[in-house]
Amino acid sequence: MRSSLLLIPTLAVLLHTAACQRNVAVTTPTDAPQTGLAGSVSTPAPTSANTIEPTPRPDAVFDATKRPKWLADRIQQHSNAEKQNPPIHIYSYQLDGATVYYESSPCCDQFTNLYAADGKLLCHPDGGLTGKGDGKCPDFVKNRTEERLVWQDPR
């Protein structure tokens, strides 16, 4: 026990000597800055645009060809409703040789909708508490092709 107590001061002297021989300088956060300044500004300047709320692209090209009446009615419902954040998007895809329409959800933990060309609700491919939808179309993301933006809320 006594020999280990004697070893500690000897080890400290050796480490101190080795550090001094290598010109190691130690500074602490309480040292005064060398230039007299505390450093550069860490807070960025405010931006003129709101960076929280997403803005739909004004130059978005919508695929308005062959919109079924039920889809035009659905788009009109979204246009008449209160603005959602994030904005609603509707895409068309080809899935197993058929046209389907994917409608995004307005916000958090809500199901998205996947409609057949005739307007029948097929499933909820994602969203919900788990983010995995209702499980009725698990291969939608993997098998969909020919994505086209049909509509997005311009507000």
Describe the structure.
- It contains three helices and five strands.
- It has a domain of 84 residues.
- The protein has a five-stranded antiparallel sheet with strand order 4-3-2-1-5, with no helix packed on it.
- It is α+β, with helices and mostly antiparallel strands.
- 23% of the residues lie in helices and 18% in strands.
Characterize the biggest β-sheet. Answer: 5 strands, antiparallel
* Beta-strand content: 15-25%
State the separation between the terminal residues, measured CA to CA: 78 Å
As laid out across the biggest beta sheet, the strand order is 4-3-2-1-5
Helix content range: 10-25%
What's the number of helices? 3
Secondary-structure blueprint:
Layout: H1 2-21, H2 69-80, E1 89-95, E2 98-103, E3 113-116, E4 121-123, H3 140-143, E5 145-152
Antiparallel strand pairs: 1-2, 1-5, 2-3, 3-4
